[in-house]
C-alpha cells in the first residue's frame, strides 16, 4: 500500500519578499514575476512548505529548492531527492503531498459561496446525471469536488488540465480511467470551507499534518 503524507499550511507570511530573497536565483526570477498579492504570497509559501516538509522527513537532503527540476509541460520533480511531490494552494491555504514510491497529485480549492462555479463543459455524461436533483448550493459543492478530483488525478500522471479533456474523466467510478492509467483518487475532508482531493496511480493510505507559515 502506497503511503502519502499530506501537509496543510495556513499562509500568514507578512513579509514574503524577505523569504523570496533567500530562494535560489531561478526561483526568485520565476516567482518574482508575479505581482504582489495573494498569488505571490502563496507561491512563496508553497516553496517554504515544501522545504520545511522535506527537511523534516530527510534532514540530510540537499538544498530542497535547488533540487527542483522544471520542464515545460511537465510537473516539477526532484533531481536527486527520493521523493515525489505535488503542491496546490487556494485562498490562504497550501496543500502538499509527499510520497517515496509513487507520483502523487493534490488539489485544494476554496469554496466561495459568492461565486458560481458550475458548468457542464467539464462533466462526463455519467456525472451530469448526478446534478439533476441537486439544489444550487449542493450543485456548487459537487462541482468543486469533481474538479479537484480531476485536477489531482491529472497531476498524479504528470498531465496539465489542458492536455486531457476533463469531460472524459468519470469521477463516478471508484478508480478513474485516464488511459493508459488507472488513478486512485480520494476526497479529503480536512478543512471547512475547502474541497481537497488526493490521487495516485496505486491504492494508498495517507496521514495529514498541519502547520502554519508566518
Overview of the molecule:
The structure is a single chain. With 214 residues, the protein is α+β, with helices and mostly antiparallel strands. The protein has a single domain, classed as Ribosomal Protein L22, Chain A, CATH 3.90.470. It contains 5 helices and 10 strands. The protein has helices at 16-20, 25-32, 38-57, 125-128, 136-156, and strands at residues 2-11, 68-69, 77-78, 84-90, 93-99, 104-110, 175-178, 181-188, 194-200, 204-213. It has a 4-stranded mixed beta sheet with strand order 4-5-1-10, covered by helices on one side. Strands 6-9-8-7 form a 4-stranded antiparallel beta sheet. It is globular and about 50 Å long. The chain starts with a strand and ends with a strand. The mean pLDDT is 92.
In short, what is this structure?
Helices cover 27% and strands 30% of the residues. It is built from five helices and ten strands, in the order E-H-H-H-E-E-E-E-E-H-H-E-E-E-E. The strands form three sheets. The protein has a four-stranded mixed beta sheet with strand order 4-5-1-10, covered by helices on one side.
Amino acid at each position: 500500500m502506497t503511503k502519502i503524507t499530506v501537509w496543510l499550511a495556513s499562509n500568514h507570511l507578512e513579509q514574503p519578499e524577505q523569504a523570496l530573497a533567500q530562494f535560489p536565483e531561478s526561483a526568485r526570477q520565476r516567482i518574482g514575476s508575479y505581482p504582489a498579492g495573494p498569488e505571490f504570497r502563496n507561491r512563496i509559501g508553497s516553496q517554504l512548505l515544501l522545504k520545511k516538509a522535506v527537511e523534516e522527513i530527510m534532514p540530510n537532503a540537499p538544498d530542497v529548492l535547488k533540487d527542483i527540476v522544471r520542464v515545460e509541460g511537465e510537473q516539477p520533480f526532484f533531481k536527486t531527492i527520493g521523493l515525489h511531490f505535488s503542491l496546490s494552494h487556494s485562498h490562504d491555504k497550501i496543500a502538499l503531498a509527499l510520497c517515496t514510491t509513487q507520483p502523487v497529485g493534490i488539489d485544494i480549492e476554496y469554496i466561495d459561496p459568492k461565486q458560481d462555479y458550475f458548468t457542464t463543459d467539464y462533466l462526463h455524461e455519467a456525472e451530469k446525471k448526478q446534478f439533476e436533483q441537486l439544489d444550487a448550493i449542493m450543485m456548487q459543492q459537487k462541482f468543486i469536488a469533481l474538479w479537484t478530483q480531476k485536477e489531482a488525478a491529472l497531476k498524479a500522471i504528470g498531465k496539465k488540465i489542458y492536455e486531457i479533456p476533463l469531460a472524459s474523466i468519470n469521477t463516478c467510478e471508484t478508480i478513474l480511467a485516464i488511459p493508459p492509467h488507472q488513478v486512485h483518487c480520494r476526497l479529503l475532508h480536512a478543512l471547512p470551507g475547502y474541497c481537497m482531493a488526493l490521487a495516485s496511480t496505486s491504492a494508498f493510505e495517507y496521514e495529514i499534518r498541519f502547520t502554519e507559515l508566518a
